[in-house]
Amino acid sequence: xxxxxxxxxxxxxxxxxxxxxxxxxxxxxxxxxxxxxxxxxxxxxxxxxxxxxxxxxxxxxxxxxxxxxxxxxxxxxxxxxxxxxxxxxxxxxxxxxxxxxxxxxxxxxxxxxxxxxxxxxxxxxxxxxxxxxxxxxxxxxxxxxxxxxxxxxxxxxxxxxxxxxxxxxxxxxxxxxxxxxxxxxxxxxxxxxxxxxxxxxxxxxxxxxxxxxxxxxxxxxxx
Length: 223
Prior knowledge:
The chain is of the alpha+beta class and 223 residues long. It is built from nine helices and five strands, in the order αααααααββαβαββ. The protein has two domains: 3-74, no CATH class; 102-216, 3-Layer(aba) Sandwich (Cytidine Deaminase, domain 2). The chain has helices at 12-19, 26-34, 43-54, 57-62, 65-70, 76-97, 106-116, 153-162, 183-197, and strands at residues 123-129, 135-143, 167-173, 202-210, 213-216. A hairpin with a 5-residue loop joins strand 1 and strand 2.
């Protein structure tokens, strides 16, 4: 059945307007983004097929350009649109964090996830904060597996001093999909925390990011 033959109350756009975006399923949200289906396949059916093919919405949004564009019903234009939407979301969250204190905030977890969850390689970054714990800037510092690629505490200290930060939140991703801090994560957190203490800068947390999950080492009392 064509989408225009559905009752208006269950069409994705009309449902969003009536009930809000959070009332929609992943497939319905994706259908609104896609706008059109394929011959013999309406846009909601196409959305379900894409989610089945990629596994879920998170994996679809994290797909490389090649993977994304090879999928039936997608292409370069849709890839560009998606990247633009994701970047706008990240900038909105960064603005939010620049206005409110982020220590212990779910907003910090959401922001770290938006920056790191989709990356294919392990990336170590910092959220540099002012004296009111508002975001000054986000900075990626190291790439590669943390227990193999060096993470230099002095680089973290230099970045914090250059930004005139009073505190910071460490964060990195686990591309394996498991947001469980490793022994190496715990060790490097303490090393960086000790180095920053010498210049009176506080490490508030270390967030471990995976697709669909963020673990706070502070909440787990691992630092």
